């Protein structure tokens, strides 16, 4: 059983990861299937350097893991329950606030 402080830390890490649209796109892509960074970068239309920085953040948050496959690494969600959590969170937000949008997605205090 986690303590309140540990629960808060877990939710804060998850929130930090979801605070960036690119990281959200990465998590949603990995929800579908594990992928190599080069393939993810191409799929998401971002540079490999930028993707690498976001993957490092997601690894630090404990949401994704890298598995060596030969000379390359394959990324996947750290726990399959994260896929369900992402779906549940997305559906809950849509159900609660269907008529709302973030007024300025670049604002740090937004949403």
TrEMBL record:
- UniProt domain HTH arsR-type: residue ranges: 3-100
Which Pfam family is one of those matched by this entry? HTH_5
Query: Which InterPro entries does the entry mention?
Result: ArsR-like_HTH, HTH_ArsR_DNA-bd_dom, HTH_Metal-responsive_Reg, WH-like_DNA-bd_sf, WH_DNA-bd_sf
Q: Which domain of life is it from?
A: Bacteria
PANTHER family associated with the record? HTH-TYPE TRANSCRIPTIONAL REGULATOR CMTR (PTHR39168:SF2), TRANSCRIPTIONAL REGULATOR-RELATED (PTHR39168)
In its UniProt entry, what is this protein called? Metalloregulator ArsR/SmtB family transcription factor
The scientific name of the source species is Fodinicola feengrottensis
């Amino acid at each position: 059983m986690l303590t309140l402080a540990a629960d808060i830390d877990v939710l804060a890490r998850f929130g930090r990861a979801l605070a960036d649209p690119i990281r959200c796109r990465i998590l949603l892509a990995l929800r579908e299937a594990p992928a190599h960074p080069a393939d993810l970068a191409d799929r998401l239309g971002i540079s490999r350097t930028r993707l690498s920085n976001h993957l490092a953040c997601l690894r630090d948050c404990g949401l994704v893991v890298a598995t060596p496959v030969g000379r390359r690494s394959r990324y996947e969600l750290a726990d399959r329950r994260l896929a369900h959590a992402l779906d549940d969170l997305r559906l809950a937000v849509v159900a609660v606030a269907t008529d709302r949008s973030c007024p300025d997605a670049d604002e740090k205090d937004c949403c």
